[in-house]
Every structure is written in structure tokens, then in C-alpha cells.
Amino acid sequence: MQIAIELINAIALEAGKGILEVYNNPNADFQTTLKSDDSPLTAADRVSHHIIVDALREAYPSIPIISEEGRDIPYEDRKDWEYFWCVDPLDGTKEFIKRNGEFTVNIALIHIDKPVLGVIYVPVRNVLYYAGENDGSWKQSDDGTVTALKVTKPADNWISVGSRSHASEEDEKVLAGYPVVSSISVGSSLKFCMIAEGKAQIYYRHGPTMEWDTAAGHAIANYSGAKVTRPDGEPFLYNKVSLLNGSFLCVVA
Q: What is the residue range of 124's domain?
């Protein structure tokens, strides 16, 4: 299927603008509510969701969409999908509420059970990461400069990257098997991007995430030379019976 990644990039940027209108409003209380899993939902999540879903439906009406803010699609209805969009309109809502800038817009295209396109936009920094299975991984900086992304794999002195909000003792056990000498904590899907651009070599996540949390970052890391697998080395797949992910490892290949 032919997808214009430039269009997906533009959709992500437009969603980011919508988020920043809320984020930069000094009078905004973010209208925070709690979803069924007790994770926060803000007005910015809803604005971004509608921008992305409306644009994708107009451009690609035949491709179904799973979004964090519109996720209740039974497995029986989606089990035979060949392609679908996997969208997190605002990844890192906790970081958004903390106002630390470490939140992203995530859009991925899944083919069968693997991400074949991923776009991550960082609104506060105006930085765009994007990747496709035939195009590699790329970063567009605030000044418009575009650079190819490639992992770095030193013999030792690895850097691990982990969650700012979800650190785990299990992380230390897994990382002990690699030549890790320091670690960085970062919010949202930026952890995948740091590996893709060579700033870290390993990211282990113990505990639950959802498919829309990982799909875009998975693609960007994968097409820059990293691997995303289950801890046992088996493939990390999408459109599962449950959209809840198990533990995973992203490591330079």
C-alpha cells in the first residue's frame, strides 16, 4: 500500500499545534479526567485525537484506526485487518500535566502484525521523527534540517534509557546483562527516538503499555538499526486479542 509519509508528518504537526494551544494557555486547567485504567485524559488528548482521526479518515478511508481515545473495537471486528493505523494522540499525558515538554504525538501504520511506518512529533521542541520500511528513519529538527538516523553500538559504555514515570526494579536485572554504565530517564516515546539517533543503546520496559504507546517508536527504532522484541527474543507483535502489551526490550542490533 502506498502511503505518503509527508502527509502523515503534516497530520502529526497539525495535531501538535492543537496540543500546544492548550499547553500554552495560561488559563488552561487541562480539563483532566481519568480513563477506565485511571490514566489521565486532558482536553489536549481530545483535540489531537479529532485532528488525527478526521485527517486519516479523509485521506485513507479504507484503513481502520485504533486510537487511545477511540479504542473499544472488539477483536472479532479487527482480527482480519491487513492494515490499520495505531494512534496515540498525546503520548506522555503525565509529562504534559507536569509541563516538562516530554510528550509526543504518535502515528503508526501496522501491516498484519508489524509496524511499517511510524511518526513521532515532539510539539514543544518542534522536532519530528519518522520512518518507513523502505525509507529508513529520519529526524527533522526545529530549523528544518533533516538527518538520517542510525543506531550506535559501542563495545562497552552503553547508555540505557528508561521511563521517567514507570521505573522498575526488574529493569536493573535485565540491564545487568548488557555493558550499561549510565542511564537516562525520559518521558513518552522519546525513549525509542534516543536509541534511533544513537544517544542510548537499550530500553527495557517491564510492565504494561498499550499498542499505541509503542507502535510508532517501534518503527523508528527498527528502521534505524535496533530491534524490539519480547524479553525472550520472540517478535513483539500488534493487533493482539488484547491491545495491552507485555514487557519488551529495544536494543541496538
A: 5-148
Residue 80 lies in a domain: yes
Looking at the predicted structure, is the pLDDT value of residue 33 above 80? no
Burial letters 13-46, b for 16+ CB under 10 A, else e = bbbbebbeebbeeeeeebeeeeeeeeeebbbbbb
Cell 495505531 found at: 86
Same domain, 127 and 17: yes
Sign of CA pseudo-dihedral 52, 53, 57, 60: positive
Query: 127: which 3 cell numbers?
Result: 522536532
Q: Is residue 153 part of a domain?
A: no
Cell digits of residue 97: 500535566
Task: Give the global pTM.
Answer: 0.94
- Note whether 19 and 42 are within 8 A (CB): no
CATH, residue 77: 3.30.540.10
Asked whether residue 132 falls in the same domain as residue 245, the answer is no
- Looking at the fold, whether 34 and 121 belong to one and the same domain comes out as yes
Phi, psi (degrees; rounded to nearest 5) at 156: -150, -170
Based on the domain organization, do 12 and 31 belong to the same domain?
A: yes
Q: Alpha helix locations (H) across 66-210? A: 75-78, 93-98, 169-175, 190-196
Cβ within 8 Å of residue 170, ≥6 positions away: 204, 206, 207, 247
- How would you classify residue 43: left for phi > 0, otherwise alpha for psi between -120 and 50, otherwise beta? alpha
In a domain, 203, yes or no: yes
Claim to verify: residue 185 and residue 237 sit in the same structural domain: yes
Q: DSSP code of 91?
A: E
Write the pLDDT tens digit of every residue in 95-129. Answer: 998 889 999 999 999 999 999 999 999 999 999 99
pLDDT tens-digit readout, 163-221: 866 656 788 889 999 999 999 999 999 999 999 999 999 999 998 899 999 999 999 99
